[in-house]
Design goal:
alpha+beta, 2 helices
Length: 90
């Protein structure tokens, strides 16, 4: 389940006031149903687009799962930096 509660700018706020808000956790299925190369490629491509589209100063993590393992990319969410994005995309 995914929940999204957007926060809109008040009249006295700027976009900079919204920076740093949010933590994004991506769950990627790598179970047997994704064994078809096309499904996994599409999921990977979508994850790259989403990660590169995140707002500056947020936190994110990628967790892949497939029987019997769950594998987070990092032990806890990391800040959105060029280095972390490059690691995630690689």
């Amino acid at each position: 389940m995914v929940s999204f509660f957007p926060r809109f700018l008040e009249m006295y706020e700027t976009e900079g006031d919204l920076e740093g808000l949010g933590e994004f956790i991506f769950l990627l299925d790598r179970s047997g149903s994704m064994a078809c190369g096309q499904r996994m490629k599409l999921a990977n491509d979508a994850a790259i687009v989403f990660v590169k589209s995140l707002p500056a100063s947020c936190y994110f993590n990628i967790i892949s799962y497939g029987y019997p393992n769950i594998a987070p990319m990092w032990p806890k969410s990391v800040p959105y930096t060029e280095e972390n994005v490059a690691h995630a995309v690689a």
